[in-house]
């Protein structure tokens, strides 16, 4: 099925086809980073430690279609989960559309290039490390503040 022209401007999230839903993802990889939540304040801290499936050079999942078989707790973003997840970055297309905002100017649906997210420095590409190279006890040493 072809994507409808400017579907993100014309249709609410619950009226998107599965292809259009997937096309909203800008490929930044921020949702693939390990996050730490403070038990008392529920504040979420991002780390630069990425899921073992994330290619830290490209910022893309190495096995997206089968990711939940390899990483059972991988988030399947749906309209329902979108309403509950508080840690999505403010630049996230799903969050922005849900909040009634436009896609950022650098989003590939606006630019036509998947590289625009990297050029805008909104991607983890080249800026993360694999969880396989970090001890679980040391993850808190990799907390970073990503520009969102």
TrEMBL record:
Belongs to the UPF0260 family. InterPro entries: Puta_zinc/iron-chelating_dom, UCP006173. It comes from Acinetobacter brisouii CIP 110357. This is UPF0260 protein P255_02550. NCBIfam families: PRK05170.1-5 (NF003501), PRK05170.2-5 (NF003507), PRK05170.2-6 (NF003508).
């Amino acid at each position: 099925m072809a994507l409808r022209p400017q579907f993100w401007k014309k249709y609410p999230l619950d009226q998107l086809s599965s292809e259009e839903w997937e096309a909203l993802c800008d490929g930044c990889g921020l949702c693939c980073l390990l996050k730490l939540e403070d038990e008392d304040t529920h504040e979420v801290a991002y780390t630069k430690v990425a899921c073992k499936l994330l290619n830290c050079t490209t910022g893309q999942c190495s096995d997206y279609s089968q990711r939940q078989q390899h990483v059972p707790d991988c988030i399947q973003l749906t309209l329902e989960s979108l309403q509950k997840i508080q840690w999505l970055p403010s630049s996230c297309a799903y969050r922005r559309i849900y909040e009634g905002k436009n896609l950022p100017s650098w989003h590939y649906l606006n630019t036509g290039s998947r590289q625009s997210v990297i050029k805008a420095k909104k991607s983890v590409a080249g800026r993360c490390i694999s969880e396989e190279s970090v001890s679980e006890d040391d993850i808190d040493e990799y907390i970073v503040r990503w520009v969102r």
